[in-house]
Design goal:
The complex is a heterodimer of chains A (228) and B (360). With 228 residues, chain A is mainly alpha-helical. In chain A, helix 2 packs across helix 8 and helix 5 packs antiparallel against helix 8. Classes of the chains: A mainly alpha (228), B alpha+beta (360).
Chain lengths: 228, 360
């Protein structure tokens, strides 16, 4: 027990004194996951919009598959991207395995289904009357889509933030694709896993506290957005 | 200006419109009245091309629109505006809402900034520009929706039950506005309502929609006093509907046998013609039985069977051999000392009865 208490005290010291390694790992985590979120949004929101506004065969099945992939296990996403990026894989020549870029790709794959799904929910939350109103006001098809997406922007942003939360908190893909290389691909979650297994509890707790604070901020922002 | 030619509309298995044909002239206020679910809203949505008819043709101006591609419909739709029964505020301020149609038409910014306050002033919401649209009351939002619709200066304004959810004061404001829009800007206004009196107050012509069909089209006088069939008569409050046969006809003044009593009515139909008689309850007058003749052709003595108070009026059922429905002011009801079971003299003019050939 005293070990845990001691670990907490040391953790607070590490945070308060702005320990270089703690800061560096936190910054890298944020950078990788924010990049993944941004790229994921740029892919997922238009796809979500396309699925919502267009009628095509197999639409329902596609939506079901997307919903199933919300719970895509992180290690499976990791394995998939690992296979694609490994030397013998189809994209091996990019040399992206064990790089931050590779990790970003892994997280993008992981969060895209969730973000498409959230976009779909957000868009269908815009009432039929609003869509009809926009059309009767003389909007072209493009103007209609843009206006409806704007109407749903807070709900869509909620989905984006959820995607970010999933990206920054996952460990499987980050470990498998990044390799947890100190000073290069080590992020909050992989560092916690490693330091804990090495018995370096205070470091783990410090990183854990930071991760929790980030998670709380994310949840808080989602809450605030949904309140609007 | 707008023409429906044998339009049929099905939603899945459900036939919402069954063979609807009508035409609406430029610069008239045309009202569709009918019960909920009769198809009024579908007609309005078809005019604004939010739906495509299952069959039949729809002309807006000279263009047949039902087969047009979506892209080609936009310029035609931009000459129209529509206000929904429950208008939805779009996100943002009242200004953003009212300006929306102008943005879509790529109207210059300065022009938008001039037109939005102008439209808001017309609906009596001057100075509301910066309010959040989501915070408005139902009546205010309805007026914002109208401002949003007229800011684009449409040729045709479509209003779906514009006052269905409003209090009487807001309703009056909107009715005044609708009349003013027609007078000042020459807009053709098409509206739906289930409120017959509103139809009468506003409309140049009325179309009665019953169960997916147009029952009758005409001026309010034609509809209210000369219903073409039983369904229309019931819809517009003609409570006295009788079946009979013409017994004699003396130069247009006929005696019609109805369940053993003779009713005098003006009609050219010859003896032997089966007819329907329609009479509004307001056209029946009352008198105490004192032997004094009234000027009306039809005089009967009857017994009051039922009294239904309706605000300042009372509705009476009177048995004169057939059951008549009549309306009397609450004051007269008390002065004449009436009550269920009492005998009373009733009278109505031959010209108050609208005679239609049965099965016509």
């Amino acid at each position: 027990m005293s070990e845990v208490v001691e670990g907490f005290i040391q953790a607070i010291q590490l945070i308060v004194t702005l320990n270089g390694e703690v800061l560096e790992i936190t910054a890298r985590s944020l950078l990788i996951s924010l990049s993944a979120t941004l790229i994921g949004s740029l892919i997922a929101i238009p796809i979500g919009g396309f699925i919502h506004f267009r009628e095509f065969g197999g639409k329902r099945g596609l939506v079901t598959i997307i919903q199933t992939l919300y719970a895509l296990p992180t290690v499976l996403a990791g394995l998939l991207v690992f296979l694609l990026l490994s030397r013998s894989g189809p994209f091996g020549f990019f040399n992206l395995l064990f790089t931050p870029t590779g990790m970003i790709i892994g997280q993008v794959v992981l969060i895209i289904p969730l973000m498409i799904g959230m976009t779909l929910i957000a868009l269908s939350g815009v009432s039929r009357t609003i869509q009809d109103t926009v059309i009767t006001l003389g909007a072209t098809e493009t103007q209609t889509v843009i206006t409806i997406v704007k109407e749903a922007r807070f709900a869509i942003l909620g989905g984006v933030i959820l995607g970010f939360g999933r990206a920054i908190s996952e460990v499987g893909a980050a470990m498998m694709i990044g390799g947890n290389i100190r000073g290069y691909t080590r992020v909050l979650t992989t560092a916690i896993a490693l330091e804990t297994s090495m018995g370096n509890l205070s470091f783990s707790i410090a990183l854990g506290v930071i991760l929790l604070v980030i998670a709380m901020l994310v949840t808080g922002i989602v809450f605030l957005i949904q309140e609007r | 200006m707008i023409e429906f030619d044998h339009v049929v509309m099905n939603f899945g298995e459900k036939e919402v419109l069954k063979d609807v044909t009508f035409s609406i002239k430029k610069n008239e206020i045309f009202t569709f009245i009918g019960p909920s679910g009769s198809g009024k809203t579908t007609i309005i949505r078809l005019i604004d091309m939010l739906e495509r008819p299952t069959s039949g043709k729809i002309y807006i101006g000279d263009t047949e629109v039902s087969s047009l591609r979506e892209r080609d419909r936009i310029p035609i739709r931009r000459k129209m505006s529509m206000v929904f029964q429950k208008p939805s505020p779009l996100r943002g301020t009242v200004f953003d809402n009212v300006a929306m149609g102008l943005f879509f038409r790529k109207v210059r910014r300065e022009e938008i900034e001039a037109r939005v306050p102008e439209a808001l002033e017309l609906v009596g919401l001057k100075g509301y520009e910066e309010r959040k649209a989501g915070t408005l009351s139902g009546g205010e939002m309805q007026r914002v929706a109208i401002a949003r619709a007229i800011s684009t200066r449409p040729d045709i304004l479509l209003l779906d039950e514009p006052t269905a959810n409003l209090d009487p004061v807001s309703t009056e404001k909107i009715e005044k506005l609708v009349s003013a829009l027609k007078e000042r800007f020459g807009i053709t206004v098409i509206l739906t309502t289930h409120d017959m009196v509103q139809g009468q107050r506003l409309a140049d012509r009325i179309g009665v929609v019953i169960d997916g069909r147009i029952g009758q089209i005409g001026t309010s006088k034609e509809i209210f006093y000369h219903p073409m069939n039983k369904a229309v008569a019931i819809m517009v409050g003609v409570d006295n509907i009788f079946e009979g046969v013409v017994a004699t006809n003396d130069g247009g003044l006929a005696s019609v046998e109805v369940d053993g009593i003779s009713i005098i009515a003006t009609t050219p139909f010859p003896p032997g013609t089966p007819v329907m008689l329609y009479m509004r309850p307001e056209d029946i007058t009352f008198h105490v039985i004192d032997g004094v003749k009234s000027s009306a052709r039809n005089e009967f003595t009857g017994r009051i069977t039922k009294v239904l108070p309706m605000g300042p009026n009372a509705r009476l059922k009177i048995d004169i051999g057939v059951i008549l429905t009549a309306v009397i002011t609450q004051r007269s009801y008390e002065e004449l000392d009436l009550a269920p079971g009492r005998e009373i003299g009733v009278a109505f003019k031959a010209s108050a009865i609208h005679v239609v050939e049965k099965n016509a």
